[in-house]
Amino acid sequence: MFEELDYDTLIDRMLSNVSDDLDKREGSVIYDALAPAAMELANFYIALDMVMDEVFADSSSYYYLIKRAAERGIFPKEETYAKCKMEVRPASTPISVGDRFCLNALNYAVTSEIDREMGAYQLTCETAGIAGNQQLGELLAIETESDINDMQSAAITEILIPGEEEEDVEAFRERYFSSFDNEGFGGNKQDYKEKVNDIDGVGDCKIIRAWKFGYDPASMIPNDKVRQWYEQQSEVTLDADVYDWLSRVYMAADNRLLTVGGTVKCYIITSEFKSPSQTLVQNVQNVLDPDQRTGEGDGLAPIGHVVKVQGVHEVPIRFDMSITYKEGYHFALMEKSIEETIDEYLMELAEAWSATDYLVVRTSQVEARLLLLEGIVDISDVRINGISNNITLEEDEIPVRGDVNG
Q1: Which of 310, 311, 400 is CA-nearest to residue 359?
Q2: Which residues pair with 380 in a beta bridge?
Q3: 337 and 369 in contact (C-beta within 8 Å)?
Q4: CA distances (Å), 101 to each of 156, 158, 200, 264, in order?
Q5: Is the pTM above the cut of 0.70?
Q6: Nearest CA to 308 among 218, 208, 399, 385?
Q7: Please, what is the end-to-end C-alpha distance for the chain in angstroms?
Q8: What tens digit of pLDDT does each residue of 201-226 get?
Q9: Cα-flanking dihedrals φ and ψ of residue 137, to 5°?
């Protein structure tokens, strides 16, 4: 904004206000007297230009962007540590919280028991970020409190909650601006998305009404036949627990208390855009609406909201196609490149999962991407799961690569 106000411009403007009858040449008394002031003003305008950049979120540096976003209660996501499942054999091996193990270059510490009788424990990677998500395999003990001489093996068998890197500055900037487009308030969809996406290990989510599939709450109101049947029931004709449950449901329906309001289904996907572990699903459930106190407002969900959290399902997609190769190329030579290209396409779909109702795996996309590979001349008869058409997945499904034949 002030880039034109450099030293030369300022000194010329200052000298123009001095009479031409006086010596204003460089090295003169007047010139030497004005030059330091012109230099300081030039530096001032440079600093003022920086202030103008930093005061607006679209041009500010990370430090000042954080301060700007904090005014709206938005803060950058910090890096997190991967949580993994360790299985020990024999299961009776004494393992204590704090015991440390290593796998290749990464160290892990036991943070809790999952099932001691089955020899299952939760480990936390000591290295933050996605590094702890990249490997499964046999562990070596490096520091333990108990005698583990009889331990036959210890291995990481599952990533329970994936670690995340510190939020990128441009991703944070985009999240800040998006907060103006969709205002989160009082348990609306945007409010749920913001809260769920802030939970460690969650990459994105899809919020829907749990009863949106044509379910009519009015159909639960007892009619005359139901009333007549219910009045004939008692703890004598039914088990006491069954009768108690039936009475509660009947009275709630009869008093019009069963409605579609506040019934929320939340599908989640991991920060690596994969199907989440049951541990992560349960963790999100506990944060939003704990199972034992559902609807009571003991979590982040408003009072009266009954929330059911589920993870996306991974659907294996088999690809069969007829490929014409250049001379010297064949499927065995290009199999890895073909699979990597398909993986990239399916990952793009998974990353877009929350923004669309139903993902579609398209034959045209597979053909177009594979034709860019060196060594492939033509592709025909592309079949996805045995069908020569696009495949449309359900709202809670993401595609993963199955077998590839070409």
Answers
A1: 400
A2: 322
A3: no
A4: 10, 15, 23, 40
A5: yes
A6: 208
A7: 58
A8: 999 999 987 665 556 667 788 889 99
A9: 145, -175
